[in-house]
Specification:
Elements (H helix, E strand, L loop, with lengths): L2 H12 L2 H12 L17 E8 L2 E2 L6 H11 L3 E7 L3 H11 L3 H9 L5 E5 L2 E11 L12 E10 L3 E7 L6 H8 L2 H4 L3 H34 L9 H18 L3 H9 L7 H67 L14 H22 L4
Helix pairs in contact: 1-3, 2-4, 4-5, 8-9, 8-11, 9-11, 10-11, 11-12
């Protein structure tokens, strides 16, 4: 669609009641960048709405509809609208303004999606899983290690709409970092898409570095002197959290490869080289997850082997003491049969001799078991 056609569409839509509500929504609520994970204190899902021209933030508190109209009228710049957990009602007018596909809108509102990349006409829809390492004093069988969220990005020729879900992964610092590099931001909406992808993958690597500390602690505990007493639930919990991280990292490989290699109209060709760099970082994260998973399997097997060895040692001790106790039991059992004609029954030193034989036999067995590390 031509620029004039886009302008006519925005102007005609702006006459409707839906878009008037969007304009009122943007004007009556100040726009803020949230550096904390909560929803907007103003009660709105709108985090920020900014127009950029030549990589420079355009000053002024223009409403969303007016900002889109000015961008499409001038044919230069783009609008970046940031949202946090919008409702169906809050997102409906925005979807109508930017002509977003209903399936993509449904995914953006309800979340719980796998990382993916889809094209709907002139709009690119990307889903990223965000991760955050959860600090804990000691890893237990119920410790939460990784917390996940989602970021959806709608990218068009003159707009970017980011939708964030979860209590982490704020894009406020990312926006400030991009604004400090106007040359990169001047490449258009695809520069924002790359920045979000790079931000998400960097968080993967940060979380993995923290998870490695937990893996090292578990490994040290398993091979400690009392490693057999370690709760295996700690290892299983770490493997479950690693699986959650794997679900966020591994499926992102194909979308990043497509962004880095295939020509896409809304992606600047110069940005594709940057996507290749992000893809390389993602490959490192994927390999690190596979290494952790394999290491945890080895740690679990080593722990089970230690438990088996400890059980065998306990059984040997029990068997050794049972053999020692069996000697007096056998001798006393024989002399407890009360037959009239038994040797040494009426011998004066018979009692002491029997006790001596029992003591010597038990001591001999004890020394033998000690020599063979059974006791």
């Amino acid at each position: 669609m031509s620029m004039a056609g886009n302008l006519r569409k925005v102007t005609s839509l702006g006459k409707g009641g839906h878009l008037r509500r969007v304009a009122r929504l943007a004007r009556r609520r100040p726009r803020v960048d949230l550096s904390h994970p909560a929803r907007s204190p103003l009660g709105s899902s709108v985090v920020n709405c900014v127009t950029y021209r030549d990589g420079i933030r355009v000053p002024g508190g223009v409403g969303l509809v007016d900002a889109v109209e000015r961008v499409r009228k001038s044919g230069d710049g783009f609008v970046w609208l940031g949202l946090h957990e919008p409702t169906d009602e809050e997102f409906a007018d925005i979807a109508e303004l930017f002509d977003l596909h209903p399936l993509a809108v449904e995914d953006a509102v309800e979340a719980h999606q796998r990382p993916k990349l889809e094209r709907y006409g002139e709009t690119l829809f990307a889903v990223f899983k965000t991760v955050c390492y959860v600090e804990h004093e000691e890893l237990t069988a119920t410790s939460e290690v990784v917390n996940t969220g989602e970021i959806m990005v709608f990218t068009g020729q003159d707009f970017v709409v980011t939708v964030r879900h979860g209590r982490h992964g704020s894009l406020g610092p990312l926006r400030e970092e991009l604004e400090s590099d106007p040359r990169q931001l001047a490449k258009g909406p695809s520069a924002v898409l790359h920045a979000v992808a790079d931000h998400v993958v960097d968080d993967f690597l940060t979380a993995l570095d923290a998870v490695q500390t937990d893996v090292d602690h578990v490994e040290t505990a398993v091979f400690a002197q009392d490693g057999a007493r370690l709760d295996p639930g700690r290892i299983y919990q770490l493997k479950r959290e690693l699986l959650e991280l794997k679900r966020a990292v591994v499926p992102l490989g194909r979308p990043l490869e497509e962004l880095a290699t295939r020509p896409i109209r809304v992606v600047d060709p110069e940005i594709q080289a940057y996507f290749r760099d992000v893809s390389d970082h993602l490959l490192r994260a994927t390999e690190q997850i596979a290494a952790f998973d394999e290491l945890l399997n080895s740690i679990l097997q080593a722990h089970l082997a230690q438990v088996t060895v400890a059980q065998n040692a306990d059984m040997r001790k029990i068997t050794a003491w049972a053999a020692i106790v069996a000697v007096p039991t056998m001798v006393c059992g024989m002399y407890g049969m009360n037959f009239d004609h038994m040797p040494e029954l009426r011998w004066r030193y018979g009692y002491g001799l029997v006790l001596g034989v029992i003591a010597v036999a038990c001591l001999t067995l004890y020394r033998g078991f000690r020599r063979n590390d059974w006791l």
